[in-house]
Task: structure prediction
Amino acid sequence: GAGVSQSPRYKVAKRGQDVALRCDPISGHVSLFWYQQALGQGPEFLTYFQNEAQLDKSGLPSDRFFAERPEGSVSTLKIQRTQQEDSAVYLCASSSQRLEQYFGPGTRLTVT
Amino acid sequence: KNEVEQSPQNLTAQEGEFITINCSYSVGISALHWLQQHPGGGIVSLFMLSSGKKKHGRLIATINIQEKHSSLHITASHPRDSAVYICAVPTGNQFYFGTGTSLTVIP
Result:
């Protein structure tokens, strides 16, 4: 595809459910970022991959959050035992160079 | 502590007005991004700049590295410019984002 894609675009989960959010980066981009954007706020960094290596996961808010990129392309962000405070838009971005990032459309997660 | 601060948070303008959105940052950077986010949509990069000024159509971005300040200007604003405008600075492995300026342009 021409850009970064994310799926699903919208997800409603009951509190306590596990969810998995997918990101397909631009082909050939080695760097992949996940961000969390709460309503009315700017995005906040969650984690960063270079190829399959997760180089920085300092932004993951709790051990319920887990991200992987096993083959260095598609990435999955998993949230276990979702809580209401997890409701946000989850944005994925990829880049071939550190200073440029191309963002996906985001996945809006609502935990009820 | 916010590494990136934007003002104003909300802005309503009449069509045709000249608009300015400001961004101040506290971290050392080599470049700053201006991003646009439409409701329900993803983020589109408008500018990446490290010095001086860039222009694209009706949009102009300026940066003063010494003062750690950048501005985004929209000339002859139009209702389709209504969106959230976010400034972001890359540092280390992360981007720090401002909270965004929500712009509404009224016909």
